[in-house]
Amino acid sequence: MKAIMVTEPGKIGIIEKDMPSIQSANEVLIKIKAVGICGSDMHIYHGTNPMAVYPRVIGHEFVGEVVEIGSNVSSVKVGDPVSVEPIIYCGECYACRSGRQNVCEKLEVMGVHRDGGFQEYVVVPEKNAHKFDAHISWEEAVMIEPFTIAAQSTWRGDVRKDDYVFIMGAGPIGLCVLQYAKYKGAICIISDLDVDRLEIAKELGADYILNAGRVDVVKEVMEITKGMGANVTLDAVCITKTFEQAVEVTSVAGRIVVLGFGVEPSKIPQLPITKKELTIAGSRLQANKFPEVVELFNKKALNPKALISHRFKIDEIEKAIKLIETQEEKTCKVVLIF
Ligand code: MN
């Protein structure tokens, strides 16, 4: 079967590998139908993901059809369309015992620490395969995983109805967060440098769009909220400056959610954190969010289609990568169809 492998940083291509087979009674074999290319796949390709191990079949946003099940499998059957939850965890460490298996001490992410979804077939434990309704197309279903990131981060930020939520960045994750926060009833302000992305945000229900290249976003958010500040700020830009701005622009009793993997320190004073009693929360991957997101997809409560900008065939992987590298701001979610 075919697989897309990053053999070492900067080198990607299609390889032939043996088909996987079910090894234990609780596993399922899935024929992959579509996968999404994520910023973190690009980081692995560029050698800028410190957690990646090479060579690696990348991809953690993937969906397919169950083609074989182990003898103990009961939650899915052959023919079911499923989205794969790409995390493997120990179930015993403090995080796992706290229901936070996304930060398990021994966490392995498919497509990062072990082979992922950019291949024709994959075997996963039954509990990682989440069945969705047949009316959802394969490419739309690819967005289930990115939306679980939004479910997680809006949960970490405790987004409530009528909260002012400031989302920094209108890329795929920012736009998923926007839709999720709107679904939770928040008033959403979103910023980006790219006009086209802001237009998409507007169409997806953003109440206010801010061009961060043209206006002072802190000043604007303070004006929109009549001096209160955003109750929740979600930083999907993830640079030192946006983290600093988040602390400045978030209201009393507010929450800040950071999603970045940056190692460069921001300069953040203690005073605003204590004075406003801010909660600063990291948000990584997701824990237990697949069922909730799948339900919203089944109900058509979200708009995944609006986020898909380009489609390629698996053989066109190099073309897809080149497009993202050269015109990133013109792409949103790039999907590979098998
Ligand atoms: Mn992703």
Write the layout of secondary structure elements.
Blueprint: E1 2-8, E2 11-16, E3 27-37, H1 39-46, E4 56-57, E5 61-69, E6 81-84, E7 87-88, H2 94-97, E8 108-109, E9 121-125, E10 129-131, H3 138-141, H4 144-156, E11 164-168, H5 172-183, E12 187-192, H6 195-203, E13 208-211, H7 217-224, E14 230-235, H8 240-249, E15 250-258, H9 270-275, E16 279-282, H10 290-298, E17 308-313, H11 317-326, E18 333-337
Parallel strand pairs: 11-12, 11-14, 12-13, 14-15, 15-16, 17-18
Antiparallel strand pairs: 1-2, 1-4, 3-5, 3-9, 3-18, 5-6, 6-10, 7-8
Helix pairs in contact: 4-5, 4-10, 7-8
The protein binds manganese (II) ion (MN).
Residues 38, 40, 60-61, 146 line the site of manganese (II) ion.
Give a written overview of the molecule.
This protein is of the alpha/beta class. The protein has 2 domains: 2-143 and 304-337, Medium-chain alcohol dehydrogenases, catalytic domain (Quinone Oxidoreductase, Chain A, domain 1); 150-282, Rossmann fold. The chain has 11 helices and 18 strands. The chain has helices at residues 39-46, 94-97, 138-141, 144-156, 172-183, 195-203, 217-224, 240-249, 270-275, 290-298, 317-326, and strands spanning 2-8, 11-16, 27-37, 56-57, 61-69, 81-84, 87-88, 108-109, 121-125, 129-131, 164-168, 187-192, 208-211, 230-235, 250-258, 279-282, 308-313, 333-337. Strands 3, 5, 6, 9, 10, 17 and 18 form a 7-stranded mixed beta sheet that branches. A 6-stranded parallel beta sheet has the order 13-12-11-14-15-16, sandwiched between helices. A 3-stranded antiparallel beta sheet has the order 2-1-4, with no helix packed on it. Strand 12, helix 6 and strand 13 form a beta-alpha-beta unit. It is globular and about 60 Å long. The model has no long low-confidence stretch (mean pLDDT 97). Manganese (II) ion binds next to loops.
